[in-house]
């Protein structure tokens, strides 16, 4: 695998001219609605690197997390309700209104392929899961960070995928990796697309993007709302708490179900990832009653919490707010009405 390939497509004057048409492109880069302080300072970096390399044993399971085998017949059966499967971190496969959709399909084994020290996935042989997947009608990508957009996964998925819906700026990576540009639609915040009975809307988050040293915020970031005649599902995407949640709720909510980013938070980057208690605030802001934590159960990207803490604190906060939640095992088929509450992660302490 080419090291250069990992970085994705290069910026050109023509591409930047396209980005400049976005109201969210200012001063040579995409910007958040509310400012985000990304300057941790060189003086802090040695300490941050030391913390990241320390205590890895408590930040990952003591044995690999198993993934249930894919049951294609059960997944594809006709249903008025969306059928979903979570594969750890932010990978979601769902069947909704007759369409098969895959969100943020990072199924590789290492989320830091350009770094000297690997950050290994909690589960094994995840790329092979793609072999069992049916044809994918649409892949949705929230942004281009390595824990969401993976070269090896895209390479393996490419023959199975009909269309791609991606954050503005991600198309150049997919084209560089061999995906036909005619199959890719880029989205700015609030832009929509309809396929069959489903409406897809790209929603704001408070985050950042980029895959190298020179492309910080030269691509965009966001979340997705999927709306059928029966259901509204919100996939929050990565990002810290902010005023945008109330606007999402006012414009598109309330939601029947939300998959909320919950994990890899840290006081050193508190503005760009949700803490568990903030997940609940986001659910309340958007009028969502049924929720599920994602962005955990895949990788140890934060040195501040154990691998189980995000879900455990999420459960406490959800119960205090009297919100319904579900906690499926990796690979388990579920729908928005399910309330799976078994604390299965305790088996992997």
Structural overview:
By secondary structure, this protein is an alpha/beta fold. It has one domain: Metallo-beta-lactamase, Chain A (4-Layer Sandwich). It contains ten helices and 16 strands. It has helices spanning 3-7, 13-19, 45-53, 72-76, 129-132, 151-157, 171-176, 244-252, 276-285, 309-320, and strands at 25-26, 29-30, 83-86, 92-96, 99-103, 136-141, 161-167, 184-187, 192-195, 198-203, 223-227, 232-235, 257-261, 290-294, 324-325, 333-334. The strands form three sheets. It has a seven-stranded mixed sheet with strand order 8-7-6-5-4-3-16. It has a seven-stranded mixed sheet with strand order 9-10-11-12-13-14-15. Strand 3 (83-86) and strand 4 (92-96) form a beta hairpin. The model has no long low-confidence stretch (mean pLDDT 95).
What's the total number of strands? Answer: 16
Radius of gyration: 19 Å
Q: What count of helical segments does DSSP give?
A: 10
**Order of H and E elements:** HHEEHHEEEHEHEHEEEEEHEHEHEE
Q: What fold name stands as the CATH topology?
A: Metallo-beta-lactamase, Chain A
Principal-axis shape: globular
- The largest sheet has its strands arranged as 8-7-6-5-4-3-16
The largest β sheet comes out as:
7 strands, mixed
Low-confidence stretches: none
Q: What gap, in angstroms, lies between the N and C termini?
A: 34 Å
- How many structural domains can be distinguished in the coordinates? 1
Helix content: 10-25%
Sheet/helix structural class: alpha/beta
Give the CATH architecture. Answer: 4-Layer Sandwich
Estimate the mean pLDDT confidence: 95
Determine the CATH superfamily.
Answer: Ribonuclease Z/Hydroxyacylglutathione hydrolase-like
β-strand percent reads: 15-25%
CATH class: Alpha Beta
């Amino acid at each position: 695998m080419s090291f250069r390939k990992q970085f994705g497509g290069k910026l050109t004057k023509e591409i930047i001219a396209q980005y400049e048409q976005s109201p969210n492109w200012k001063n040579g880069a995409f910007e958040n609605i509310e400012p985000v302080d990304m300057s941790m300072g060189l003086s802090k970096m040695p300490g941050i690197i030391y913390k990241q390399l320390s205590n890895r044993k408590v930040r990952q399971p003591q044995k690999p997390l198993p993934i249930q085998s894919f049951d294609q017949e059960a997944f594809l059966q006709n249903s008025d309700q969306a059928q979903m499967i979570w594969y750890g971190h932010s990978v979601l496969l769902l069947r909704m209104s007759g369409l098969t959709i895959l969100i943020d399909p990072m199924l590789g084994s290492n989320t830091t392929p350009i770094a000297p020290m690997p950050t290994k996935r909690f589960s094994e042989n995840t790329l092979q899961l793609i072999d069992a997947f049916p044809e994918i009608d649409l892949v949705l990508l929230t942004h281009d960070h390595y824990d969401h957009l993976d070269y090896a996964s895209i390479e393996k998925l490419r023959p199975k995928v009909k269309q791609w819906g991606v954050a503005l700026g991600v198309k150049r990576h997919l084209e560089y990796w061999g995906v036909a540009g005619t199959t890719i639609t880029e989205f700015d915040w609030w832009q929509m697309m309809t396929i069959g009975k489903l409406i897809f809307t790209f929603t704001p988050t408070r985050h950042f993007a980029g895959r190298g040293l020179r492309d910080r915020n030269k691509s965009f970031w966001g979340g997705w709302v999927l709306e059928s005649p029966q259901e509204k599902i919100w996939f929050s995407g990565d990002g810290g708490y902010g005023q945008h949640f109330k606007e999402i709720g006012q414009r598109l909510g309330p939601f029947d179900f939300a998959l909320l980013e919950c994990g890899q938070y840290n006081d050193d980057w508190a503005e760009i990832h949700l803490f568990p208690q903030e997940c609940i605030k986001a659910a309340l802001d958007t009028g969502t009653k049924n929720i599920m934590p994602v962005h955990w159960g895949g990788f140890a990207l934060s040195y501040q919490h154990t691998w189980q803490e995000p879900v455990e604190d999420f459960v406490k906060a959800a119960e205090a707010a009297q919100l319904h939640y579900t906690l499926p095992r990796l690979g388990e088929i579920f729908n928005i009405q399910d309330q799976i509450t078994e604390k299965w992660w305790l088996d992997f302490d």
